[in-house]
Every structure is written in C-alpha cells, then in structure tokens.
C-alpha cells in the first residue's frame, strides 16, 4: 500500500499511532456503523483518547498538516465515514476554535474537542443552496446579552452524533457576503433541533442531516469578529479540501492496486487480462496520472509547512483534478473487475460511491472551477505586451522569407 503523505520519521510514527488506534475496531464495527448510518461518538472519543487530534494540532495548523492528511488517508482506508467525521472534528471544529477562539469558554471547549468529549460538525449549506456560501439566509440578530439565531441548515455530516455545530449565519440585513459570521452552537440548546437525516448513496456510515435553529445563544457563541465569517469559513475549507484530496488519492490508490492485481491474476482465453494491450495501457496511464496528482499533493503540503500558508487556487485545482481523475480510475478499475466490480464482495462499488460525493462536498467542481478561473483571468502585463508585439507583426508580407517572429516570451 503506497503512503501518500511524504515519508518522514515523525509522520511514520504518527501513521503507526493511527493504525494502532484503529485496532480497537474490526470489520463488524464498520459494518454496524454502516447499517446504523452513524459514526458512534465513542469512535471519535477513542481517536481523541489516543492523542491523534492533539498530535495533529501540537505544532499548529500548518506544521501539523502532514499529520492531518495522514490521519484522514489512514481512516479512509478503514471507514470512509470515520474519515469524514474526523475531518469535521479536526479541521473545522478544532480548527475554528484554535484559530478564532477568544474566551475562556472557547478554550475549555477546545480542550473538550481535543479530548473527544465534544464532537463538532460544520453547518453551512442551506435548503436553497450550498454552492454559493455568500447566499446564506440563516440570521443572527444581536440581542442585549447575546444572539438570536434563526434558520435551517442541510446536508451536515455527522450532525447525528455531534455535540456542537460550527455555523455560518448572516449578522446583518444586507445580502452581502461581508455580513456573514461564524458561531459555535451547542446542539443541546433549547430551540436547536436535528430534524432528521438523508438517505445517501456515498459514505453511508456517516450521517448527513438537517438542523433547524430558532434559539438564543450567549455573546461568546460568536467566533472571531462579526462580518468575517465567510473569510474564516473559506480558510477552514482549504484544510477540508486538502483532507478530501487525501481521501480521494487514497481511494484511487486502492482501486488501482486492486485492478492491477486482478488483471495480473485473471486469465481469459489462455492469457492474463493484464497482457491485453488496451488494459495494460489504461492501467499505465492511470498509474502515471495518480503519481502526478500525488506529487502535486506532496508539493502543496511542503508549501504549507514551509510558508505557513495554504495556496487556495492550487488546492482548488488539485481537488478539481483529483475528483475527476480518481473517479475515472475507480471506474476503470470496476471495468477491469467485470461483474465482480459491481458486487459488494469487492470494495470498488463502495469506493466509487464514497469518492463520487467528493466532487460536491467541500466545494463543488463548478465552484472550484470558478476559483481557478479567477486565477487564469488575472491580467499579466508581460503576456499582454508580448501579444501586442505579436499582433503588430501579424501582417501579410511580400515574401515568406522575410517573416519576423515576436521575441520569445520570457519571464
Ligand atoms: C456527503 C456530503 C456531505 C456534506 N457535508 C456537509 C457538511 O458537513 N456541512 C455543510 O454545510 N454542507 C455539507 N454538504 C453540502 C455541500 O457542501 C453542498 O451540497 C454543496 O456545497 C452544493 O450545494 P447544494 O447541494 O445545495 O447544490 P446547489 O447550490 O443547489 O448547486 C447545484 C449545482 O449547481 C452548481 N452551481 C450552483 N451555483 C453555481 C454558480 N454560481 N456557478 C456555477 N455552478 C453553480 C453547483 O456547483 C451544483 O453543481 C455535504 C454534501 C455531501 C454530498
């Protein structure tokens, strides 16, 4: 099994720590979670008790990023729902409290989250749409002694077993992105209701549910400054997107390893399936593309550690490319398995379902494309000038031999 996150001694030890912790569960547990459609809170408490969240955050958001992707990648190999729930716990709940917490209550809640006594989820999407967070309608009205929150949130992962939601709401009447703020909502607050859950094709062990809020909350339910919620949420989502890349690449790697193994072992009309050139080349192209995506992933992790920052356009581009290509690789792997790929005896149909939703959750392909397009659409004086020179030369000449070429485009 190829480990995605670049090897170093501390990461190898952390990976072993995750694998050791996961020995507490077996195939029957994973099957039970999937049948129940919930990750038990105790599973996250166990991971926390083994120090996995604390170790991820010990050196801060950026230096601990390799531990984060190692955690998600490893958990995904055992149970995709546990990986999603842990991602919400670590990158949204703990991340929001660590970065924006300011009160004693926030510090105490952060400690509870690291210890697994509190479990968090992220409530951003609403019934009228989730792709454009700037359109959020949930209202937070300032009151003398706190806030009144009113609204409905949908498709929230792990809401069924969480104790708190990190919730994005509008703190002013104007329909302006700058009016969004981030709140911590204890789910046992009067007026906070989990309405129910959606039956879903992918990641069946982690619930996705709906939350209704018509509740009074104390002043320190607000995280950070009012009006900066979209900025905060966008930053947290960068970490979530990298985590999703980790699980996508883990899914692609598993599918490809299995497909290659099956093609090597299966014989048809006297020859191995892998000896058919069409299969061989498909597998080779998939391997090449997966290596390239893994390299890009490693570069982004190295950048985060070196610069103490995340490159948002590059992360969006990686999730966009990985989402599409990994799905194609899983599809190819199912094809190579023939009818067996469709049976639950092999993990391919589940990998396909679990990875498919990565193209929606954490930023849809369309939203990510828009984000990358905003990078492509930046003016570049050097290129503009070069094109103007080339345009001047782009005229008919009396003789081809006298043709000019614009000087090379150099940086
Ligand atoms: C498994 C799973 C887990 C999830 N977990 C969470 C969670 O924990 N918390 C949470 O808040 N949300 C969660 N979501 C919701 C997810 O973030 C949203 O589904 C996603 O943002 C899209 O929102 P929507 O489903 O409302 O689609 P819509 O916003 O209705 O969009 C429908 C389609 O139109 C496209 N579209 C919309 N606007 C534009 C535009 N301006 N330009 C181009 N295309 C556009 C979208 O990309 C999409 O393809 C989860 C979703 C899934 C599938």
TrEMBL record:
<comment type="pathway">
    <text>Siderophore biosynthesis; mycobactin biosynthesis.</text>
</comment>
<comment type="similarity">
    <text>Belongs to the acyl-CoA dehydrogenase family.</text>
</comment>
<dbReference type="InterPro" id="IPR037069">
    <property type="entry name" value="AcylCoA_DH/ox_N_sf"/>
</dbReference>
<dbReference type="GO" id="GO:0005737">
    <property type="term" value="C:cytoplasm"/>
</dbReference>
<dbReference type="GO" id="GO:0003995">
    <property type="term" value="F:acyl-CoA dehydrogenase activity"/>
</dbReference>
<dbReference type="Pfam" id="PF02770">
    <property type="entry name" value="Acyl-CoA_dh_M"/>
</dbReference>
<dbReference type="InterPro" id="IPR046373">
    <property type="entry name" value="Acyl-CoA_Oxase/DH_mid-dom_sf"/>
</dbReference>
<keyword id="KW-0560">Oxidoreductase</keyword>
<dbReference type="InterPro" id="IPR050741">
    <property type="entry name" value="Acyl-CoA_dehydrogenase"/>
</dbReference>
<dbReference type="Pfam" id="PF00441">
    <property type="entry name" value="Acyl-CoA_dh_1"/>
</dbReference>
<feature type="domain" description="Acyl-CoA dehydrogenase/oxidase N-terminal">
    <location>
        <begin position="12"/>
        <end position="116"/>
    </location>
</feature>
<feature type="domain" description="Acyl-CoA oxidase/dehydrogenase middle">
    <location>
        <begin position="121"/>
        <end position="214"/>
    </location>
</feature>
<protein>
    <recommendedName>
        <fullName>Acyl-[acyl-carrier-protein] dehydrogenase MbtN</fullName>
    </recommendedName>
</protein>
<dbReference type="InterPro" id="IPR006091">
    <property type="entry name" value="Acyl-CoA_Oxase/DH_mid-dom"/>
</dbReference>
<dbReference type="GO" id="GO:0050660">
    <property type="term" value="F:flavin adenine dinucleotide binding"/>
</dbReference>
<dbReference type="InterPro" id="IPR009100">
    <property type="entry name" value="AcylCoA_DH/oxidase_NM_dom_sf"/>
</dbReference>
<keyword id="KW-0274">FAD</keyword>
<dbReference type="InterPro" id="IPR013786">
    <property type="entry name" value="AcylCoA_DH/ox_N"/>
</dbReference>
<dbReference type="Pfam" id="PF02771">
    <property type="entry name" value="Acyl-CoA_dh_N"/>
</dbReference>
<dbReference type="InterPro" id="IPR009075">
    <property type="entry name" value="AcylCo_DH/oxidase_C"/>
</dbReference>
<comment type="function">
    <text>Catalyzes the dehydrogenation at the alpha-beta position of ACP-bound acyl chains. This results in the introduction of a double bond in the lipidic chain, which is further transferred to the epsilon-amino group of lysine residue in the mycobactin core by MbtK.</text>
</comment>
<dbReference type="InterPro" id="IPR036250">
    <property type="entry name" value="AcylCo_DH-like_C"/>
</dbReference>
<keyword id="KW-0285">Flavoprotein</keyword>
<dbReference type="GO" id="GO:0033539">
    <property type="term" value="P:fatty acid beta-oxidation using acyl-CoA dehydrogenase"/>
</dbReference>
<feature type="domain" description="Acyl-CoA dehydrogenase/oxidase C-terminal">
    <location>
        <begin position="229"/>
        <end position="374"/>
    </location>
</feature>
